[in-house]
Structures are given as C-alpha cells and as structure tokens.
Fold:
Amino acid sequence: MGTRGTVALLADGAPVDVPRDAARDAAHEELRKAVYHQHEPGIVERVMDWIGRQIGRAFDGVAAPLGGGGNAALVVLLVVLLALAGLAWWRYGAPRRAARSDGSLFAGAEGPRSAARHRADAAAHAAAGAWADAVRDQMRALVRGLEERTVLSPRPGRTADEAAAEAGRALPRHAAELASAARLFDDIAFGERPADEAAYRLLADLDHALGRTRPTPVPAGGGPA
Structure:
C-alpha cells in the first residue's frame, strides 16, 4: 500500500498505483454482489427472528417478578395456555365428536324387541329422567313399528339415517321429520349431544303420528312398491 493515498496493485506483473478512495469504492461495489450474501437469512427469516425476540422480551418482562429464568417463563406460558383454553371453552362450549353416520340403530340393544316393548322402555327411562336412553329406545320403537307394519323390511345393521330415508319414500309427508329425527338420534347416541325431554317428546310424537298414517309399503330393496 502506498503512503500518499494510493494502493499498489499488480496488473500483468507490473505495479500500478490506484487512489485509495477508488480502491475503497471498488471493494464496496464488489461486496454488494449477490454471491457474497446468498447464505444470509431472507426477509421472512429476519421478520420471524424479530418477532421471536419480541415475544422472548415480553415473557422475560412478565417472568421477572417470578424470579426470571426458564422455570418462570414456563409458568407464564402455562398460564397463557390455560387462559386461552378457558376462553375457547367459554366461547364454544365442550368439544363434541361428530355424529357417526355408520352406527347401527339397534347396536347395544338386548336382542330383538317389539315396538311396544321399546316404547315401554323409553317411557320408563323418561320417567327416571334418563333422556339419552329414552331417545334411543323411542327411535328404535319408531323404526320397529314401521317394520311391524311392513312399511320397512327388517334389516340387521340398519342405521337411523337409512331407516329415515327408506321410510320417507313410503311416507313422503313425514320425510323431513324422519330425517330430522335420525339426525337427532345420531347426535345423541353417537355425537355426545345432551338429550332432554324435548328430544324424547319429539320422537314420541312423530312415532304416534306415523302410526296414524297410511303408507305405501317399501320392499326389501328400499324403493317404492
């Protein structure tokens, strides 16, 4: 390097004097090329790092009264998570599983029973305030009654949805009510929806109304006669 504001370079083996300012500018220009920055974090990574630092500072500030450190930060994190869970519970209620549409209507029943027996069991459950059991037996009574009247052909493993769809074709005036009854049964029997007296009464009233309706019998294939 020269002593009078120049830099000594070699060009084809011959010394060349370059002014210091020009050499500095050339070096800056060279370092601006992308090849020297290809391994640096991108804008997204820099933003995420900044957010992470801000969250860390916030936790450090809240955890300071607890003595700081990792344990204090963990306590703060748990408190925040519990608060969020409580807010979600208050806003949306207890989580419920979706009703299963493949559940057999008579799954868990103690052997074949007549419609009258299912109605009697439903009434006994209702008297005891066991509304979920009352809804199950009342829906079974409704479908068994349709089978006994040959509106439906008996078929093991039939679901409430299937029974409602088949019966709705033979009883078109009650098709919508039957579909609603099947969804109600599924929600209570398989979806953990709380049962109540209103649900039981709805099924009992529909069962009574269907008993006074003259249907068009549905053959084993499920189509119109």
Helices lie at 20-31, 43-63, 69-92, 115-127, 131-148, 160-170, 175-189, 197-211. The first helix runs from residue 20 to 31. The two ends are 107 Å apart (CA to CA). The chain is about 55% helix and 5% strand.
